[in-house]
Amino acid sequence: MKTSFIILLIMLEGSANGLVAQHLPAKQPEMVIIPAGKYFPLFLDDEPTNLDSFLMDRLPVTNEDFNHFVTENPQWAKASVKRLFADENYLKHWDDKKPFGPHPAEAAVVNVSWFAALKYCECQGKRLPTTAEWEYAAEAGRNRPDGKNEPGFYNLLLEFMSEPLPEKLPPAGTTLLNYYGVWDIHGVVFEWTYDFNSALTTGESRADTGSGNALFCGGGSLQTRDPANYAAFLRHAMRTSLKAKNTVKSLGFRCVKDLKIENSR
Amino acid sequence: MKTMLKVTGFAVFTLLLFNCSNKTEQKSCCSIHESSHQAEADVSDVSLFLLQSQWENQAGKPRKLSYYKGKPTIAAMIFTHCPSACPRIVADIKNIESELNASGFNKIQYLLISMDPARDNPEKLQRFAEDFRLGENWELIRADQSSTAEIAQVLGVKIKPLSDGGFDHSNHIFLINSKGEIVQQLAGLSADPAEFIAECKNLQ
After folding, report:
1. How far apart are CA B127 and CA A5, in angstroms?
2. Do B122 and B106 share a domain, yes or no?
3. Which residues of A touch B142 (CB under 8 A)?
4. Interface test mutation site (partner B, options A4, A84, A128, A208, max chain B beta carbons within 10 A)
5. Could you tell me what percentage of chain B is helix, strand and coil, using 3-state DSSP and rounding each to the nearest 5?
6. Are residues B22 and B81 in the same domain?
7. Domain limits of chain A?
8. Residue A22 predicted with pLDDT over 70
9. Are B38 and B76 in a shared domain?
10. A193: which of A58, A186, B82, B158 is 20 to 30 A away, CA to CA?
């Protein structure tokens, strides 16, 4: 009797940790480990960043997740959010009649500002990924950590990007699963990063040197480390065009967490 | 068998404990917002006083941004290890201050916000204030990384950490009215402050 209780307990714990039901993304662990490594930024004159291993949400934050957060934190509700923290299109697709508009509850939440994403992750005891962390995780292909060496992977990304945004966003965990077990990092929705607009400075502190001008005034992606990775260049361009209170119908987010305790703030 | 049961009991207890502590962590994060929500009633939708972050000044005293309510504030983001741009920004603000003082406009407070929370502790800020002979109407404040990133985004100051521990950053001086709204900004170093000063005088 006691033994079966123990077994039951182990099973319960097992399923909570995702050891059971491997095929259903929702039942798998919430976060996956991204191993330590070096991220080589897009631009040649930016130095590589050393990254410690960290945990990343397997799935983007969904409408359902965000609705839960908004219920607990009414100051982030569509009707009460302050303009300082989100523009007028915040949660635009949410609707009284149809809670999440055309999108399913399980689809990535979009039309959220950086401020809202930052607070959401904080409230989960997590944080927003840095651009280096996000891009590093996004370098993985389907079957290997270096997607650039996976035949057809870059083309696939470009195909994703050239598709118009669907009327109805797909449920999270249905587009692309990468080598680390991260879903949808490439797919239909872009994602916020913690330092999304620090890549370009206005340059006053060090005169207007650096890569900025060459890149944006006709330089295209040619000054980048890997011109074939046009998708990364497009993401960069998108990020630098954003302001933290902006909300975009194709922009959502996911959270990460430090693996080492001493790293956490 | 008894030991097994104990072990199981302990495991259940630990699990519960873990879950609870998780919950409280969430709650505390959310309740901070909740409790301060009331105080927001009298500020506008775009007031900096909506930011709930916790700061400390050069004397180590806790500060919320709403502490600066009631008087116009001239503010900028700096870091004390800054080799050239920040001293110049501070010099620019001091020039504005002396011009305002000379015309009798002395009710303005001055706020330097650290973009380098890892290194700028109250002692460093105090030292900076002394080195630059900043008066009593100047406050220098710091917070954690996330609150620092948040205010930088609110102000539109771009900050890029460099490998030497410093930052590339845009240089802005802000005029904030007594309600926490940004009413004027001066971009770039040694920019012509005439319009900015005129606006300061308007506010007082």
Report:
1. 63
2. yes
3. none
4. A84
5. 50, 20, 35
6. no
7. 28-263
8. no
9. no
10. B82
d(CA A187, CA A10): 36
Do residue B27 and residue B127 come from a single domain? no
The single-letter DSSP state of residue B39 is: G
Tens digit of each residue's pLDDT (9 = 90 or more) over A166-207: 999 999 999 999 999 999 999 899 999 999 987 654 443 444
Q: Which site among A51, A126, A205, A264 would you substitute to test the B interface, given the most B Cβ atoms closer than 10 Å to its Cβ?
A: A205
User: Which pLDDT band holds residue A154 (cuts at 50, 70, 90)?
Assistant: very high
Q: Which of A142, A212, A223 is nearest to A178 (CA)?
A: A142
Is the ipTM higher than 0.85? The answer is no
- Domain containing residue B31: 2-42
Overall domain count for chain B: 2
Domain A28-263: give its CATH code. 3.90.1580
Residues ≥6 apart with Cβ < 8 Å to B183: B175, B176, B177, B199, B203
Same domain, B38 and B52: no
According to DSSP, the residues that pair with B174 across neighbouring strands are B75, B185
